[in-house]
Design a protein that fits this description.
Shape: globular
Helix content: 10-25%
Distance between the termini: 18 Å
Bound molecules: zinc ion
Number of domains: 1
Largest sheet: 2 strands, antiparallel
Number of strands: 2
Structural class: alpha+beta
Strand order of the largest sheet: 1-2
Strand content: 5-15%
């Protein structure tokens, strides 16, 4: 999963505020919901999906991801 940031500090900067987490394939920058994310944005392993550290999470990505995971 990869972070989408609030407007303001560039992704990767210390004060950048994460708006929402999206699910991406491998290390891609296109979220499953179609959102383009910055290559410099923070990432988390897919294992973190569904845990409090991945909140808030994009609902579109969550629904699509659920459909793919057995
Ligand atoms: Zn998404």
């Amino acid at each position: 999963m990869r972070a989408e940031y609030e407007e303001g500090p560039a992704p990767g900067e210390r004060d950048a505020e994460i708006r929402i987490w999206h699910m991406v394939r491998l290390d891609g920058t296109t979220a499953m919901c179609g959102r383009e994310l910055s290559p410099g944005a923070a990432t988390k392993p897919a294992d973190a999906w569904g845990t409090p550290e991945a909140e808030p999470f994009c609902h579109s990505c969550g629904a699509l991801y659920l459909r793919e995971v057995p």
